[in-house]
Design goal:
Chain lengths: 434, 84
């Protein structure tokens, strides 16, 4: 029997270059960067004093949080996650359950993060160390438990199915979408709000600055700092934000008459086991290639049906290795290689949120018929240029009608996640490549 | 501070936590935080912290356990203010 079909019916995003889906769409189409100089980082002696950080007025939160929820709120990742999650839910035409009614037993939340509410946790640590533990109040636990984000969203909406938070470093967001897909194909739920979020600020980014993997020569020129696939890439720019996707069974979407943005054909998650060249911070290339190939098998497509790839491509020396892995896994190169882009050129590396924000960008390309351009890679890395034709790595947005786009994320711990999205059509067989 | 002034200050403090607006509008000395105002029990500790900040007093655990109504709260606040 055919697997249950699963589609995407709602999107939400809080990104360094767009506070909602329409701002974000405009920004990625026009190559608008969200990277900026952050004075606080300079004051704290960071080498890298730039980052991608969503900006909004404090009052904006009143649209999403009630007075009690806002009291003592000091968890940026919780803010981004709730805004993007509720936006996606609304975008899907779904409603919030009244307090006195039963929860939606067929709807759940899988919303990942790496760590939640570090600023709130810092507050708590200071109070505890001063012997004032009783002054923490009730908000400390709720804003710093990792699952705070899924708990807030599930409670605000009234979800009665799985409500959990996954965590797999930089593959968290893509993994959340695949977990939602699996949960729905196995018949356990009809709708899952999937996504991921990442706090902003020095306590999140400091550890990466200490590892010397962030660029430090662009503090006066933030928008050209994030250079995926470039010969002059010198490290990833830290970012933050959240992305959210309503993942739903085709049956349920049709019954509701929902707008369908794209279909999820399948995907795969795996690990290199920190063997075969893999480590806590480096990927086992065999595992990456296996993940890509298994995703294609699960999606039941051929490599030549892939119109575009949204890579992980962080702007480190590992970009060339990633391209080689794609090329070997798909057995495609030169002009045959799909179009490829990296959102990180525009927003930096949003860490646990990267997979979901980048998946929102990927789905938008399918919905609105474009492939967004990569900024800052005019000087293509020679190893990449040897594998992929220049034309396949656009520096400006091109008007194309992609049918199939693959999205991959790779994370610390040698973990990989790869998902295949397709433009929705009633007939499941893929269209011939144009 | 008169009892009326204290009630007025308490009314402002509990307002954001109240889930039963009708009971809040009819707030009196006899009003119970949990049974009448339907304040979430986890938020009771936040009410106590707000009372501490407002009156610059410290409410110990024993006093806190008794602070379940407006009347009990007034008595405890007056007692703490007297020994300040």
């Amino acid at each position: 029997m055919d697997k249950k079909r699963v589609v995407i019916t709602g999107l939400g995003v809080v990104s360094p270059n767009g506070m909602n889906v329409s701002e974000f769409t405009n920004a990625i189409k026009h190559g608008i960067s969200g990277i900026q100089y952050i004075r606080e980082l300079e004051e704290l002696n960071f080498s890298c004093q730039i980052a991608g950080k969503p900006l909004y007025e404090n009052d904006y939160l009143n649209n999403y949080f009630n007075t009690i929820q806002r009291k003592g709120l000091n968890a940026s990742g919780l803010e981004y996650g709730v805004i993007s999650g509720l936006d996606a839910w609304k975008d899907a035409g779904l409603s919030i359950v009244e307090k006195e009614n039963s929860p939606l037993w067929e709807a759940g939340v899988i919303f990942g993060t790496g760590i939640l509410g570090v600023d709130k946790f810092r507050e708590a640590i200071y109070k505890v160390d001063e012997g004032k533990v009783r002054r923490l109040g009730s908000t400390s636990v709720l804003q710093t438990m990792a699952s705070g984000i899924s708990a807030f969203l599930g409670g605000m909406i009234g979800c009665g199915n799985i409500t959990t938070t996954n965590s797999s470093a930089c593959s968290t967001g893509t993994e959340a979408i695949l977990m939602a897909y699996d949960h729905i194909t196995s018949g356990k739920a009809e709708i899952i709000l999937a996504g991921s979020t990442s706090d902003s600020g020095p306590y999140i980014w400091g550890g990466f600055d200490a590892m010397r993997i962030l660029p430090h020569k662009y503090n006066n020129d933030p928008t050209i700092a994030s250079r995926p696939m470039s010969a002059t890439a010198s490290g990833f720019v830290p970012g933050s934000g959240a992305g959210a996707l309503v993942v739903e069974s085709l049956n349920s979407a049709k019954k509701r008459g929902a707008t369908i943005y794209a279909e999820i054909l399948g995907g795969h998650t795996n690990s290199g086991g920190q063997r075969g060249g893999g480590s806590m911070t480096a990927p086992n290339n065999i595992a990456v290639q296996k993940c890509i190939r298994q995703a294609i098998t699960n999606a039941n497509i051929r490599p030549d049906e892939i119109d575009a790839i949204n890579g992980h491509l962080t702007a480190t020396t590992k970009d060339a290795t990633e391209i080689r892995n794609w090329s070997q896994a798909l057995e495609l190169n030169g002009k045959e290689f799909p179009y490829i882009n990296s959102l990180k050129s525009l927003v930096g590396h949003c860490l646990a949120a990267s997979g979901s924000i980048e998946s929102v960008a990927t789905v938008l390309q399918l919905k609105e018929n474009f492939i967004f351009g990569n900024i800052n890679c005019e000087d293509l890395h020679p190893e990449i240029a040897a594998l992929v034709d220049r034309e396949r790595i656009p520096t400006k947005t091109i008007n194309k009608t992609p049918s199939v786009i693959m999205k991959a994320s790779f994370g610390f711990g040698d973990v990989n996640a790869c998902v295949v999205f397709k433009k929705f059509s009633e007939n499941k067989s893929t269209a011939t490549k144009n | 501070m008169t009892k009326e002034e204290l009630i007025s200050k308490l009314r402002t403090i509990v307002a954001p936590y109240v889930q039963n607006q009708e009971a809040f509008e009819n707030l009196s000395e006899e009003t119970d935080f949990i049974n009448d105002l339907e304040i979430n029990s986890a938020n009771l500790v936040d009410v106590i912290l707000d009372v501490e900040d407002e009156f610059d007093i410290e409410i110990d655990n024993d006093a806190m356990e008794k602070m379940l109504t407006i009347k009990a709260s007034i008595e405890i606040i007056q007692e703490k203010l007297a020994i300040k």
